[in-house]
């Protein structure tokens, strides 16, 4: 099955949920295809840069429990994003900086100590077959490679000649937020909510719900009361949209969000603020503030 | 696939780390009146889109709300025409829906572009929906769905008349959503609109041809769903093919006709094709 000359990663431990992600597949929303892509885009891009890849090369995105892989050729890798213990064949190595993984050695990104999602970039990038121009897994629509399973083989690309760029000292990886503060642009459907609900949204303290996933950051906190209770015909949804389902608890749409939805969107969090949302562990305090 | 049990793509209150969304979800419904107040308006002469509202959807997007689905389709067609002519600022996604069109990713490097476009949109004169000049995509259907009797009763006709009424209708893809390649097709007159099933099915097979509200849809792959199933498309693989451009057979704006076939003969039919030129029309030239 696997060509002998190929370079591959063998999945030793897939972790709770590990997916292949790149910059996603923008521009197909009119066909019902969402963006997908790394939830913490800056972390994925930085990890790529440190191994000499283009910023949109495909990486692994873990969820809380990390993952372990074994390359069949020597490869330079970086584990970044959520902070975690990194080992090669059991020996501790640097987090957030390039490490050389010998052929047949196990690179293990441990459970996240801070943050939620670690990113594993490999020189040459991961190269499963792209779908609509992207190698990202979209968990809502089922496009792209399936989440990693034990024993899976993932094809690796050829590293750029010259190897990774010289590494000049520590790199500023953003930490996980102790408190998540998300700026909100009101609309398009803020007028479907009571004045009190809008005040609540911008003043109350929420927490990140354990039911959050790549589709949306779900919240626990005071429900938002609607002033209009009729059904909203399906309409287009943007990334960062704060959709309010019937239980009144805001859901912030992340990369795998549906392209259309039928619950009103009270406001929108700008995309640049969503990387922090991707690293907020369940239980993190959350405030919405006016953008 | 999500449990967004029908089509609205709604996400309700629960889910899990695998990205599944559980809970309710249903059709966007249909016969809703125009929304609300405070409209920016370009109302006026016949053929105008009537009232339209331009709503903000974050720093780089606008949600344009039209009076109804027909006007939304006309506005969407106008947007595509203007984009084709190079008269639109860079917009990453143009997403039509039930009575709105979302413009997302508007000239992200020019912060004022969104507001300029918003001011411009309200002054547009939009041509009314035109008679269709393209040959429709033909979708073969075996009308033997489990909800055929229910739909016939709601329509007040015999079960054998559902196929005739449905296949006589000129449909158009109003928008996509719910799943890649799932089109919401409009065209049924109001008296033929039907409610969703009271109990959604946990699994609707790929190819199911189903009705809800003003819409007809064909499921590109198995998923949960609450629409009334009247038939099945024998070869649903053509609905979604990521290796094809466009990947969806039923792209917004596409005219569609359903062609009744008998169960036994379904296998011999040519597969429907995306695009404007059909094999039969080419044979004439």
TrEMBL record, chain A:
Keywords: ATP-binding, Hydrolase, Nucleotide-binding, Transferase. This is Biotin-dependent carboxyltransferase. SMART domains: AHS2 (SM00797). Residues 143-174 are annotated as: Disordered. One of its GO terms (molecular function) is hydrolase activity. It comes from the Bacteria. The keyword ATP-binding applies. NCBIfam families: urea_amlyse_rel. Residues 30-291 form the Carboxyltransferase domain. Residues 162-174 have a biased composition (Pro residues).
């Amino acid at each position: 099955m696997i060509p002998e000359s190929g370079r591959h990663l063998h999945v030793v431990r897939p972790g709770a949920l590990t997916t292949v992600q790149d910059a996603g597949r923008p521009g197909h929303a009119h066909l019902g295809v969402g963006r997908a892509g790394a939830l913490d885009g800056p972390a994925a891009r930085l990890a790529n840069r440190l191994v000499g890849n283009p910023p949109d090369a495909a990486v692994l995105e873990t969820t809380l429990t990390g993952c372990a892989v074994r390359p069949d050729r020597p490869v330079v890798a970086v584990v970044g994003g959520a902070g975690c213990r990194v080992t090669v064949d059991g020996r501790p190595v640097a987090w957030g900086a390039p490490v050389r993984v010998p052929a047949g050695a196990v690179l293990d990104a441990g459970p996240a100590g801070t943050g939620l999602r670690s990113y594993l970039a490999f020189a040459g990038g991961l190269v499963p077959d792209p779908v609509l121009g992207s190698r990202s897994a979209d968990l809502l629509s089922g496009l792209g490679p399936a989440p990693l399973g034990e024993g899976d083989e993932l094809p690796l690309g050829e590293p750029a000649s010259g190897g990774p760029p010289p590494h000049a000292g520590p790199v500023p990886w953003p930490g996980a937020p102790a408190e998540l503060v998300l700026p909100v642009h009101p609309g398009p459907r803020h007028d479907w909510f009571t004045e009190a609900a809008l005040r609540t949204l911008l003043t109350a303290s929420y927490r990140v719900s354990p039911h959050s996933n790549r589709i949306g950051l779900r919240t626990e906190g005071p429900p938002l009361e609607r002033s209009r209770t009729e059904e909203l015909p399906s309409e287009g949804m943007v990334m960062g949209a704060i959709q309010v389902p019937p239980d009144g608890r805001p859901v912030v749409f992340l990369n795998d969000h549906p392209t259309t939805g039928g619950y009103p969107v009270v406001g929108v969090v700008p995309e640049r603020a969503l990387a922090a949302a991707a690293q907020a562990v369940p239980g993190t305090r959350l405030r919405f503030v006016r953008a | 696939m999500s449990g967004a049990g029908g089509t609205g793509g709604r996400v309700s209150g629960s889910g899990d780390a695998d990205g599944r969304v559980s809970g309710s979800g249903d059709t966007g419904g249909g016969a809703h009146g125009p929304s609300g107040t405070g409209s920016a308006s370009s109302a006026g002469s016949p053929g105008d889109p009537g009232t339209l509202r331009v709503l903000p959807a974050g720093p780089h997007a606008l949600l344009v709300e039209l009076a109804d689905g027909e006007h939304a389709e006309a506005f969407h067609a106008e947007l595509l025409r203007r984009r084709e002519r190079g008269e639109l600022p860079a917009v990453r996604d143009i997403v039509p829906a039930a009575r709105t069109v979302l413009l997302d990713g508007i000239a992200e490097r020019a912060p004022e572009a969104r507001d300029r476009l918003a001011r411009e949109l309200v002054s547009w004169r939009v041509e009314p929906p035109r008679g269709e000049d393209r040959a429709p995509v033909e979708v073969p259907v075996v009308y033997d769905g489990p909800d055929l009797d229910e739909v016939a009763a709601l329509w007040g006709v015999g079960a054998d008349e559902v196929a005739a009424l449905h296949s006589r209708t000129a449909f158009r893809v109003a928008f996509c959503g719910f799943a890649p390649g799932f089109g919401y097709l409009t065209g049924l007159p109001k008296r033929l609109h039907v409610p969703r099933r009271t109990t959604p099915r946990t699994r609707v097979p790929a190819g199911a041809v189903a009705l809800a509200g003003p819409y007809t849809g064909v499921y590109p792959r198995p998923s949960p769903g609450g629409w009334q199933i009247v038939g099945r498309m024998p070869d649903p693989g053509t609905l979604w093919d990521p290796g094809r451009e466009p990947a969806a057979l039923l792209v917004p704006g596409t005219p569609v006709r359903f062609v009744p076939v008998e169960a036994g003969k379904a296998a011999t039919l040519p597969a429907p094709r995306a695009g404007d030129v059909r094999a039969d029309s080419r044979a004439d030239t």
